[in-house]
Each structure stands twice: as structure tokens, then as C-alpha cells.
Amino acid sequence: MDLTLVLVKREIKMSFMNKDLCKVRTITTFLSLQKGREIWEEEIQKASHFCGELSKAFADENYTVQSIRIVTNPFGEYLNTDSLETAKSDLRYLSDLLESTNSSGLRIRFAIGEAINKHEILLLPELVTEFGDLCNVCVNVGMDEFGVLDNDLIQHSAKAVERISKITPRGEGNFNFTVNFNCDPLIPYFPASYHKSALGNRFVIGLETPDLLVAVLKDYNQTADKQDHNNNFKGYFDVMSSALQYHIDEINNIVKQSAGDEFKFSGFDSSAAPSKNCSSMVEVYEAMGVEYFGASGTVEASALLTKVFKSIQGVDLVGFSGLMLALTEDIGLAQGTIDNNFDIRSLLTYSAVCGIGLDTVPIPGDTSIEKISALMRDTGTMAFRLNKPLTVRVFPVPNLKAGDMTAFESDDLCNCAVLAVP
Q1: Taking Cα atoms as reference points, which of 281, 307, 306 lies closest to residue 294?
Q2: What pTM, to 2 d.p., does this model score?
């Protein structure tokens, strides 16, 4: 074997094993709360302690844990929703519990489950405004007996999006609210995450792996024949799938040794889950020969990436376990809006072969309820027709029009150009 090839294969193996390239984005616990505050403290303490101990076990094996998260059953089952003030009072109590029980030093995030009717949706804008990252919430929209999406629920949700955009600084509160289509419980990523009491106490691991994918692709490309497209795509699949499998196996072994039995392990969400603090998914596309995200070849590469995330063996896969394109959480995608490399129609097209739908997409502040609802219906129709989980999390940005630059101040968000809603 050629010495160069031997050295490159050694580099690829080293990239596989580099734990700095694979972060544990979240340990997400799922629990149930009931009416009456008496049991809340015990349940929250149990989840917080569990996450803290498991985080220590990961750290001992040199895996970085970025956040711990707690998700509940639908909030209408335990918060007093008689009025906005009673709901705020209960959430204030829960927020104090979360702050006081978090001894891990890690970022803690909380999801109050799903809103299931108009009354609950009407409460959301003010709750999100006051409690922010401790009030992540979703609405699950289904279909009627004729296969038509519940447009009443969609329109109430669109009104909530509009209201949140107006009463939170720069409209950033919509980071904590999403509308789900064909999404099952036990998604570890927020705000699409929700729980059902019948499932009992569970936990799921979510990873951040764009750094890993970029590293192994760059190593592979050192010896790849640029002219052999089919063989290269097979190679891309092999190195990315093997790298993810290696780390998931390692982390799964830590879980088996350390997790105990208070929370049942439900598996992994294998999505890459990019953030503004790691490699962009755009770099992954470019390493696979796509000129830029949005260029010809983007759909093909998206389909391959989805196949990679679905390829994991030996563990249960839950949540999205697919390609996440979170626009304002990914610095490369954000730059792509400035360069006019893609639009909302493109993102919907890519959702046909991957996920997550329309996620963290800034749109003009004066976008009508009708247009937001139509975007949701288009996305939801694709989700059910293609039998995949998709979401809509859009940010109408006050006083901005298509092409204007955002000025987000959240640590989670990149600034980018506002996309037109066709």
C-alpha cells in the first residue's frame, strides 16, 4: 500500500477517535408533573441530579457536555392555566427550583411540553417573554380525517409567532417556540421537545458533531480521486458513518456503566446539531464537492447526509436523527443568506430529503398571519406525505424587510439576511 495512503488512513482513524470533535450537546431528561406544587421539587431535583452525575461520567471519559435539559408532559396538565398570572406564578416557582437545584455548573434548559389548544397557545407569548430559556414550548399539529392539516391550530400558532416577535427584543423569543409536524415525543433538542406521561421517566442523548464530520471528510479527500464521484460518495458515507458510530458506541458504554435506573435510556438523536461555536454544515457540503450550500448538488449531498445519520447500529435512534439546517445557529448558513445562495423555497426542497424543516429562519417583520400559516401548511404537508418529522421556527424581525441584516444579541444566534416569504 502507498505510504501516503497509509498515513492518511491513520489520520482518519485519529479523527474518528478524537473526543474533542464530538460534543454531547445535551443530556435531556423527560419527566411528568401533576397539578399541585408539592411533588415538583422532588421531581426537578431528581432530574437535575441525574443529569449532573451523568455529565461527570462523560467528563471523566473526556467528553464535553454542553447543556442539561428537562422536558415535561403538556404544561396544561400541571400549570394553573386559569389565567396568565396563575400560569406565570407556577412557572416562576419552577424557574426558582431549576436554578436552585442545578449544581452541575452547566447550562440548564427547560421545556414545558406542548400547548394543545387555543387557550394555551394564547398564554405562550407572555410566558416565553418572561421565562425565555426556561420556557421552551411547541405545538403539535395533526391532520383531520380527510388528511388536511388543522388550520385553526396553525393560525393560532402563527398569531403566537407574530405576538412573540413584537414583545421580545428583536423578535428573538421565537427561538423558544416551534410548531411540529409528524414529530414523536422524546426529541432531545429544543423547542420541538415534548413528553407523554405514559412513557415514564426517560432520557436521550443529543450530540454536536459537525467538527467531526468536517475532519474525517478532509482526511479522506487527501487521497480521493476527484473524478470518481460514485466511489467518493461511498467513501464519504463510510468515513462519516464510522466516525459517528465510534463515538456513539463509546458514549453508549458510558451510559450503560453510569446511568442507573431512575430514568430509562431511550437512545440517541444522531443529528449533527450545529451551533455557532463549531464547524458549519456548509463546510461538510463543500468537503463533499458541493460548490456552496444551495448550489447544484445540494439535494444529493443532503440525501447522503441523511443516510449517514440513519445508519447508526446497536442503539435506538429517536428524535430527528437526520440533517439539521438551523439557519441562524450555523455561521456558514447565515453567511449563505447574505450571499443569496438559497431561499425559503430551497430550504423546503432540501427538507424533502432530510430535515428539520424551516428552523430559525428570519423573515420580514410585517409578514402576514396568512403567509406564516401557509408556510406551516406547506411544511406540514411534506412532513406527513413523506412520513418525516419537520418543524417551523421562524423569526419575524420587527421593522426589517427581505435582505436586511438582523442584529440579534442572543449568544445562540448568528446574524444573517432576512429571507423573503414567497
Answers
A1: 281
A2: 0.93
